[in-house]
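Give me the fold.
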Amino acid sequence: MKQQLEEYLTYLALERGLSRTTCASYALDLSLFQGFLQQQGVASFAAAEAAHIRDFLRHLKAGGREASTIARKLSAIKGLYRFLEGQRVVL
C-alpha cells in the first residue's frame, strides 16, 4: 500500500500540478485510511471493500471530526481509487 500511495502522491504533484500543501493534506488523509485498513487486517487497497470505507468514515465521525473534514478525506479516497483503477490495480 505504501508504494501505491507514494505513486499516487507523485501523480498529484507532477501530473495534476497540485500544491505541496494539498499533497501533504492528501498524504495525511490517505495515511490515516491506510492505517485504519491495516488495523482491520486489510493487506492492500485492492482488498478493501466499500464496507471498510464506510467503517472508516464512521470512525472519523465518532472521533468528532467535522463533516467538511470527513468529506475531504472521502474525496482523497475516491481520487486514490480512480488512480488505482487507471493503473489496473483495482477493477
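The CA atoms of residues 10 and 23 lie 9 Å apart.
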